[in-house]
Amino acid sequence: MHLEVPAVSLSAVLPAVDPSPTPSESGTPRVPSLQDAQETAGNAAGWVEENWSTWLAIGLRVLLILVIATVLRVMVRRAITKMVDRMSRTGQAVDGTTLGGLLVNAERRRQRSQAIGSVLRSVASFLILGTAALMILGTFQINLAPLLASAGVAGVAIGFGARNLVTDFLSGVFMILEDQYGVGDTVDAGVASGEVIEVGLRVTKLRGDSGEIWYVRNGEVKRIGNLSQGWATAGVDVTVRADEDLDRVKATLSEVAEKMGKEEPWNELLWSPIEVLGLDSVLLDSMVVRLSAKTMPGKSLTVERELRWRIKRAFDATGIRIVGGATAMEDVETADPTAGMAPPSVYSSTISPQSVAASPLPPPSTTK
Questions:
Q1: 3-class SS at 237?
Q2: What whole-number distance in Å separates Cα of residue 284 and Cα of residue 248?
Q3: How confident is the model over 30-36, as a mean pLDDT?
Q4: For residue 231, which phi and psi values (nearest 5 degrees)?
Q5: Furthest CA-CA distance within the chain
């Protein structure tokens, strides 16, 4: 039997065996060749060529969102500024009219307009920029559902934890928008009263009558009385004797009121003539006559003090007595409390002759 062995060339066997040592054996890193660098650069160029259009579209979309958001923000802020300026001009147009006298002054109106404009501009910027940021994240194929859900949960948690802060802020916003009070007003907030020295979105500062400063949270104010808006009322009660001539009393009071209304600076503080309303009450020994007038806000006490001063001087000149309650019976002559008492007896003194004669004799002595 003849066995044939196939011939194997040396060149086919030698490449299977690598005579050179491996990098792990020698410890020297393999240096990339020029062919490897060309292959890597070709792969990168191919990847850029395949994806450049996508990245260019994303970049242009982001740029377009930023441009639109910026232009929209500028337009909205400019519109708010024009609206605030129009509010100020409308207020200045009525300053010289009767209605303007009942409204707040120009400085107060300007401060209110600036506060409203600042709040509206801040809210508009937050909404526009926040929406633009979410649109940019959506452009990068980022799933916004978990982010919005987390923001909603965080908002609810913050709302529960800081509900007092949110209440104070919202109350401050509505107080400014509705112009409930402003700097310089005298208010009664229930928890405190005094002159407003600062109005904030969270806290209002009041200066009390004794100089103390009250920090009142806007959310705690349930009711508030503004003593500086519109007009104030000055009321004076005059108590005279019951036997005085009413016609003479009324004529004297009318003369005082007319004279005071023509003099400065009272003619500016008085917004209506002083009226003699008539008898407010009639008692057994006195009667009360009431006067009233509308004054500039916050000036009622000043007008009342001056009116009382003038009434007292006029009554003294005409001989009309001003009395009040217990002092109405001053002219009644009171009796001497000791007049009805009997004179002291001579027997009240132990050394008087009558007391000595009336004293019992001492018993005789039994001692010898």
A1: strand
A2: 20
A3: 68
A4: -145, 165
A5: 199
55 vs 36: CA distance, rounded Å = 27
Handedness of CA 77, 78, 81, 87 (dihedral sign): negative
Which tens digit of pLDDT belongs to each residue from 206-217? 998 888 999 999
Helix 144-161 to helix 163-178 angle (10° resolution) is 80
Length of the chain measured in residues:
368
Rounded Cα distance, 106 and 113, in Å: 10
CA distance 293 to 286: 24
Report how far apart the first and last C-alpha atoms of the chain are (Å, whole number).
Answer: 199
Token pair listed for 147: 């982010």
Q: How far apart are CA 300 and CA 356, in angstroms?
A: 78
Task: Please report where in the chains the tokens 């990245």 appear, as a residue.
Answer: 55
Q: Name which residue leads in pLDDT, 28 or 198.
A: 198
Instruction: Give 277's contacts (C-beta < 8 A, 6+ positions apart).
Output: 290, 291, 292
Q: What is the pLDDT of residues 266-300, one digit of tens each?
A: 888 888 888 888 888 888 888 899 999 888 887 88
Whether the upstream peptide bond of residue 337 has omega within 30° of 0, thus cis, is no
Q: Which among 72, 52, 176 has a CA at the least distance from the CA of 127?
A: 72
**Do 252 and 312 form a contact (C-beta atoms < 8 A)?**
no
Estimate the crossing angle of helix 144-161 against helix 106-139, to 10 degrees: 140
With H, G, I as helix, E, B as strand and everything else as coil, classify residue 337.
Answer: coil
